[in-house]
Amino acid sequence: MPAQFQDYWDKNIDRWGDKYLDISHGHEAFDRPAWFTSIYNSTIGRIERRLMKERYRRTIAFLDKNIEPGVVFSDLGCGTGIFVVEAAKRGAIVNAIDFSESSLATTRRNVEANAPNADVSYIHADLQDDKPLPESYVALAMGVTPYLTDIDKFIAKAIRSAAILCIQYTDPNHWANRIRRTMPVLDVRSLQYYSSDEVDASYDKHDGFLCWRDKFATGYIDVVTNSKKFHFEKVDYPR
């Protein structure tokens, strides 16, 4: 995992939870001058806050439809643990997985405060190395792929570990991302972009079956199944 992403998440993980609560994230720390950060958060940041609320709604809908008591659920890149808590409240056995120790510590605090009797394992792992992930029935990767530099390794690892996957990507061909890529000063988080063609080729290579794809924000959300473990065309989708 590149050092700049590790540093960003270690600095900002507690602040990211605020986005889901519709609190201004003007206190997010960018590697930019203070005046730029202020302007960004009062303009683009407002749009991002609305999109974070919608992403939260869709993810909760996905959990509602696919999590039952006793189901093993993995949050790949658990961040603040907001979806770890939600899955635990629905009775899941949860794997909270992240490359940032700060993220895991924040997740643990949130679980202890909001789901104290939950069955949660905290796993420090790089989603792009060759070490296997724990097996689960449902896995979630929201806001993770923009910080991964080798999408094929991630997809291979994720598909091997889970029956159903919900994954968000940032599309290089979206007009807003074209602007970001031509004006790097606007790409405040140094995002990674993956086209649907590149992702589809990786699914085919690693026995992934694409059930649904829907445009979201400046990218898209996929629901994918492991075709060797679980293959059918109708999996409930977070609309």
Automatic annotation (TrEMBL):
Domain of life: Bacteria
Gene3D superfamilies linked: Vaccinia Virus protein VP39
Ranges for domain Methyltransferase: 75-160
Protein name: Methyltransferase domain-containing protein
Source organism (scientific name): Nitrobacter winogradskyi (Nitrobacter agilis)
Lineage: Bacteria, Pseudomonadati, Pseudomonadota, Alphaproteobacteria, Hyphomicrobiales
